[in-house]
Amino acid sequence: MNMQIRHFLLTPEGGIREFSGEQAALIAAGANRLPEFAARRVRYLQLTLGEANDSGEIRVQTAGASIQFDGEGKMAEAVAPAEDEQISRFEHDAVVQWALKSIPTVAPTFH
Question: How high is the pLDDT of residue 58?
């Protein structure tokens, strides 16, 4: 497995939306608008997947932020989440499981 970086927005209503790396870069640069998030603040979770070693183990790293959009839906700022904006364990695990769903699993070995 090559290293993968995945980008997710988590809405206050409980929604999770994934963006490609290209889409995320355009949003961060202010070159792409998300009108559905105009004048709103949402949480962002970046997830990095990669092989830890030759044993086939998968390393998962995450980083979060709080993103404010302006009235047109362009990203205005990204900062560390406030105390009341923390990503819950459930949300974190849901995003991780969503990202892992496309990785083939190996059948168990019985001895």
Answer: 85
Q: What's phi and psi for 17, nearest 5 deg?
A: -130, 130
Query: Whole-angstrom Cα distance, residue 38 to residue 76?
Result: 10
Q: Is residue 108 part of a domain?
A: no
43 bridge partner residues? 10, 66
- Cα four-point dihedral sign 72, 78, 83, 87: positive
- What single-letter DSSP state applies at residue 103? S
**For the segment 66-90, what is each residue's pLDDT rounded down to a tens digit?**
999 999 999 999 999 999 989 999 9
Short-list 24, 42, 47, CA closest to 85 = 42
Helices (H), 8-104: 21-28, 89-100
Give a yes or no: residue 42 inside a domain.
yes
Range(s) of the domain holding residue 85? 4-100
